[in-house]
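>> received
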Amino acid sequence: MSNLSFKFIEKYYPVFLEGIQWTLIVAILSVIFGVILGTLLCFMKRSKVSVLKIPIPKVIASVYIEFIRGTPLLLQIFIVYFGTTSFGLKLTPVVACVIALSINSGAYVAEIIRSGIDAIDKGQLEAARSLGMNQRMAMQHII
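>> returned
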């Protein structure tokens, strides 16, 4: 127990700082792109657009969300990094990681936003309608 030494920290301090820097860059970019993707997926899942009585955007978003949430993140990272080479794309590890984390977090963000919207009591929307608000105004001011 007395042989515990932290001298390696002094030696590898620049490497630790670089790792922290790259971690923050990847995390910030993944969150930004994940929120954008998640918001779009949420709108698709709540969409009432249908072709031949089949809600195409809703089905696409639901399948995407369930597939991404049902597969491990490590598998998704491997598929993005190694799978893109079969299409002739050579991604750097950082870019592949940002793409994979954005795809993964987008599915979770879509469900978070959707459940937040669905949690609003229907009476709140009815009250907004009685005040003369249309659907967009009600969603903008209530949410």
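>> The mean pLDDT is 89.
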